[in-house]
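User: Structure with glycyl-adenosine-5'-phosphate, tokens only please.
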Amino acid sequence: MSTPTNAERMEKIVSLCKRRGFIFQSSEIYGGLNGLWDYGPLGVEVKRNVKNYWWQVLVHERDDIVGMDGAILTHPGVLKASGHVEGFSDPMIDCRACKAHLRVDQLIEKQGVKQCPNCGGKDLTEARQFNLMFETHVGATSDESSIAYLRPETAQSIFVQFKNILEVSRKKLPFGIAQIGKAFRNEINPRNFTFRSREFEQMELEYFCRPDQGMELLEYWKEERLKFYENIGISRASLHVRNVPDEERAFYSKGTYDIEYDFPFGRQELEGVAYRTDYDLSQHQKASGKSLEYFDEETKEKFIPHVVEPSAGVDRTVLALICDTYGEDQAPNDKGEMEARTVLRFHPRIAPIKCAIFPLLKNKEQLVTKAKEIVGLLRPHMNVFYDESGAIGRRYRRQDEIGTPFGITVDFETLGEKDQTLRETVTLRDRDTMKQERVAIQDLPAILRDRIA
Ligand code: GAP
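Assistant:
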């Protein structure tokens, strides 16, 4: 089998995502809306597993981080103070030949002349700033006074609620506030499948600290975040850390790392880890007139905390997981002949379905009844799938393609027809090694829970 090129690989991934119900184009039956995606039955499970694991390791397993869930519609004052109303824009150019709107960094250059990447046209407009925020109106009037924005990042509601959360949680520095939620950006050219979308989800942590702790915590969070990606099954070799140079960093940031991943369309940012100093809280204190200072009981000092922000994209993480785990290899069919198989080698923690359960034959009532009993036994512990149609090899193949790590087959030995010692046992198949082992039904919840964690 020849190795697919990166473009072919990406095409296969997009097609698999649609065919098996991970990701669909939004409003597809109306021709679709560019840059917007809907997650299907399997995609939503992967997304939830990513978000739940992020929440588990950052909020539930630590004493120093609490969560929040802020509103999407945002007061214009918040986004004026944060600098988004003035400056959250990309320079845009139009191609007069094909009428495309282009981000300046997307132009191609041939012999020193800038050209449109779509039609090669050289008749381009001057660059102008295009604000990426979606604006709407709140209430019955539609004028300047009713403007609100769909938040372009989740971070700002964390800064704005800093004082309330500090008071109710009674945390001492350093401590963090975590949030997962939707963000909206009217990207000029959404592209590379879900990578650059107009509506997406972020997982953001604002970790507040004393000024002298900022640089050290920047290193700490970079390492923690790399561990997270490894723990959800992204190979370390495909992850890279870019130390963002001074000229590319926001003026208030003393240090920023981009965690990048080798997507089939190139090495691109998965997450930014930024030391933002006291910029955000200072801006909101100035604009709102409300104190956002922290009082240190021990030193009796009052100051505005600094912040380190690991900010990750849920959709980009899901896409990286699918790209990283997508594989094509050979597996035996029911006759023992090798056949091509497509497989998603998801970490069991992330797999949308943890275990598939098959009766060997669908027309043998005892096999079907026993398989359904096992479904009932496992369902309280994990997401399982029952399938009785087709040859057993085909059923395995369908599960391999969506990344189900374990398959259980109920056969005649389960019923004790050949050997009484095998009664109440099943075969447990591992997706990656394709090895099968015989295990007692009663041990299944513990064995599988252990392997998933
Ligand atoms: N609060 C900081 C912040 O929002 P960012 O680098 O603009 O920083 C953080 O965004 C993360 O959000 C990115 O690393 C990426 O994973 C995700 N993200 C940003 N824009 C996106 C888009 N248009 N589509 C999908 N994900 C996006």
